[in-house]
Amino acid sequence: MSHALPPAANELLRDGLTALSLPPGLAPPLARYLCLMERWNRAYNLTAVRDFEAMVQRHLLDSLAVLPWVRGPRIADIGTGPGLPGIPLALARPDWQLVLLDSGGKKTRFLRQAVMALEMDNVVVVQDRVENYHPDEGFDTVISRAFAATAAFTRLAGHLCAPEGQLLAMKGRDTDDDPQALPTGWRVVATHSLQVPGLAAARHLVEINKD
Ligand SMILES: C[S@@+](CC[C@H](N)C(=O)[O-])C[C@H]1O[C@@H](n2cnc3c(N)ncnc32)[C@H](O)[C@@H]1O
Asked: Sorted alphabetically, which Pfam families does this protein's record hold (predicted)?
């Protein structure tokens, strides 16, 4: 199987890593991950984004753009789908431990295969509904992308935070979520505007903390 991206997508990836101040050595494993996703997507329908250049921007660079706000070392990615943002984050920070959780069997089957192929030892894949998942230890950051409205994400995943942990919700546009709708004991502390190289569309990161 080829692990090389088409030249234009490869250039976008390398330029994007530079813009995000990330090392160029990340490009080969990220490219390998996209090639695996593209291959499995033919049978498993993992993502609607099928063009390599769009996948670089909307999947890889979008996931990596949140790095400045993520606190490790224990991270959970809820409703990770094909591993977004979890796999790019885990490749960028091999010193962190990530749990990638999804209720869908096709997604977790792909993820287990990808983690093995990429020889990642800092990722655990969990197939479960988040509301049923009760690990012994909490997480420093619980993140999700395109998973649920902020209040629903907080209600479903808040129990996974360590005492000083944070929730981060990645959003496509400025959220019209009502902060008042958050469960008692939680508040939105900030909404950060994400700069994703090459993407004009607005991207946001909502940061939610315990009161
Ligand atoms: C729209 S997809 C987003 C996937 C990925 N985060 C991304 O940005 O491409 C939402 C994912 O959440 C998963 N999901 C939905 N409800 C869930 C639940 N209660 N617990 C765990 N995963 C859930 C779905 O299986 C799906 O893969």
From this structure: GidB
- Residue 46: how many CB atoms within 10 A of its CB? 21
Residue 32 Cβ inside 6 Å of ligand 1? The answer reads no
Per-residue pLDDT of the chain (211 residues; tens, 9 = 90+): 567 899 999 999 999 999 999 999 999 999 999 999 999 988 888 888 889 999 999 999 999 999 999 999 999 999 999 999 999 999 999 999 999 999 999 999 999 999 999 999 999 999 999 999 999 999 999 999 999 999 999 999 999 999 999 999 998 865 567 766 899 999 999 999 998 988 888 889 999 999 8
- φ/ψ of 131, rounded to 5, equals -70, -15
Name the nearest CA neighbour of 41 among 117, 122, 107. Answer: 107
ipTM: 0.99
Closest-CA residue, ligand 1 atom 13, reads 79
Supply 165's token pair.
Answer: 């942990």
All domains in the chain, ordered by first residue: 66-210 (3.40.50.150)
The tally of CA atoms less than 13 A away on the side-chain side of residue 1 is 12
Contact 63, 197 (CB under 8 A): no
Query: What is d(CA 95, CA 173) in angstroms, rounded to the nearest whole number?
Result: 31
Q: Beta partners for 102?
A: 127
